[in-house]
Specification:
The chain starts with a helix and ends with a helix. The protein is α+β, with helices and mostly antiparallel strands. 25% of the residues are buried. The longest helix is centred in the N-terminal third of the chain and has 20 residues, at 4-23. The chain is 39% helix and 21% strand. It is built from 4 helices and 6 strands. The strands form 2 sheets. It has a 4-stranded mixed beta sheet with strand order 3-4-5-6. The chain has a two-stranded antiparallel ribbon with strand order 1-2. The mean pLDDT is 84. It has a single domain, classed as Trna Endonuclease, Chain: A, domain 1 (3-Layer(aba) Sandwich), CATH 3.40.1350. The protein has helices at residues 4-23, 72-85, 106-112, 130-145, and strands at residues 27-29, 42-44, 55-62, 88-95, 101-105, 125-128. Helix 3 packs across helix 4. Strand 4 (88-95) and strand 5 (101-105) form a beta hairpin. The chain is globular and about 45 Å long.
Length: 147
């Protein structure tokens, strides 16, 4: 039987590697998640003021359940942590022998692509693959830098 904590750490390491490989951004585990609630799994590994990293990233790696969708409790968890940290919630999830899927709220995707930020429905979510996630992430960072 696989240890859940080991599997979670392995998943976080895979996500960290992908951010570095695709964007040159180093992430580290947020150790505060073990001391207090409302923290994501990963945060930027930058010195204070060096870079404005707006994302609260939660990583979930689970056994294959026959489903391709995320569990609503996962989204609620990252949404709550992101709100507490004043950040954008990003959920990375993966079932065994499947590709990573990433969930963001449409407000952030719309903003990144030059649209409005007024979608009030909290259920308007976009689930995407890794390439799309990195495209949207770059666009969000660029849009924030220009405001």
């Amino acid at each position: 039987m696989v240890n859940a904590r080991t599997k979670g750490k392995r998943g976080e390491n895979q996500v960290r590697t992908q951010y570095f490989d695709h964007m040159g951004i180093r992430l580290k585990r947020d150790l505060e998640q073990y001391r207090s609630s409302d923290h994501g799994d990963l945060l930027a590994d930058f010195k204070d003021g060096e870079f404005d990293w707006p994302f609260c990233i939660e990583v979930k790696a689970y056994a294959n359940t026959g489903s391709d969708t995320h569990r609503p409790a996962w989204w609620q968890q990252v949404r709550k942590a992101a709100k507490a940290q004043g950040q954008i919630p990003v959920l990375w999830y993966k079932y065994d022998r499947r590709d990573w899927r990433i969930v963001m709220h449409m407000n952030h995707v719309s903003f990144a692509l030059g649209g409005s930020f007024d979608h009030q429905d909290e259920n308007l979510l976009l689930t995407m693959d890794t390439e799309t996630c990195f495209y949207v992430t770059r666009e969000i960072l660029a849009a924030r830098a220009s405001t």
